[in-house]
Amino acid sequence: MAGHSKFKNIMHRKGAQDKKRSSLFSKLSKEITVAAKMGGPDVDANPRLRLAVNNARSNSMPKDNIERAIKKSQGGEGDDYEEIRYEGFGPGGVAIIVESLTDNRNRAASEIRTAFNKNGGNLGETGSVSYQFDHVGEIVFEASVKDADEMFEAALEAGAEDVESDDEVHEIYCAMEDLHTVREAMVEAIGEEPKSAKLIWKGQNDIELDEENATKLMKMIDVLDDLDDVQNVYGNYQISDEIMEKLAG
């Protein structure tokens, strides 16, 4: 998978668009508030909240922001948020899954549909593409923390199912129900916190995109990412390093 890392693709886009930092913090805050509302404000007793807080910290979100997001959950905020999954197709026939966390279902559906339609995509029914993905846990470490062989051995020992390494990151995959235990075992084995740890939709058979379709797809994903109601966007695509460097330039 070298040269086709989804995490690397995302980082190239975010690195070129620092203005998205405030939007990222907003999405992280929303997840923290909803997680605390659903499972309580105790980080140690709430696995989803613990994961959300860890991801916020790994993205350098200030401690005050994290505490404020947790307090919001106890003040009545987060009551109306609804988790909705949208599915469809993007440029080049790429299957797309959009995870939304919204307090207005009609607004979210309208804005997401528009993002698809105006960027060469087509929004489908729920279940229209999710069968092409596996719902798994993903833990990402910097490549510098261990070499590929050491990371592979440590991940398998921790209970992971697969590891994909390149010159920038190690992506560790596990069963969704094992995410928390594998993450904790990896932190203990490696001695460092991961860049991220979350549940993702991983494509079973990725589509290699040419420059034209890659350009269109990245634009569509950027538009979706900019929507307040959108938390995550996943697709079964591969883009070469050469094309990604052009897009990030």
Report on this model:
The structure is a single chain. The chain has helices at residues 6-15, 21-39, 47-58, 63-74, 105-117, 148-158, 179-190, 211-226, 241-248, and strands at residues 82-89, 95-102, 122-123, 133-142, 162-165, 169-175, 196-203, 207-208, 230-235, 237-238. By secondary structure, the chain is of the alpha+beta class. It folds into 3 domains: 6-74, Arc Repressor Mutant, subunit A, CATH 1.10.10; 82-131 and 205-248, Alpha-Beta Plaits, CATH 3.30.70; 133-203, Alpha-Beta Plaits (2-Layer Sandwich), CATH 3.30.70.980. The chain starts with 5 loop residues before the first helix and ends with a helix.
Tally of extended strands?
A: 10
Query: In the CATH hierarchy, what is the architecture of the largest domain at level 2?
Result: 2-Layer Sandwich
Order of helices and strands: HHHHEEHEEHEEHEEHEEH
Determine the N-to-C terminus distance: 22 Å
The CATH class of the largest domain is Alpha Beta
CATH superfamily of the largest domain: YebC, transcriptional regulation domain
Gross morphology is globular
Summarize the structure.
The protein is an alpha+beta fold.
Draw up the topology in text.
Blueprint (H helix, E strand, L loop, with lengths): L5 H10 L5 H19 L7 H12 L4 H12 L7 E8 L5 E8 L2 H13 L4 E2 L9 E10 L5 H11 L3 E4 L3 E7 L3 H12 L5 E8 L3 E2 L2 H16 L3 E6 L1 E2 L2 H8 L1
Parallel strand pairs: 8-10
Antiparallel strand pairs: 1-2, 1-3, 2-9, 4-6, 4-7, 5-6
Keywords:
Alpha-Beta Plaits; globular; 9 helices; 249 residues; 45% helix; disordered N terminus; four-stranded antiparallel sheet; alpha+beta; Arc Repressor Mutant, subunit A; single chain; 3 domains
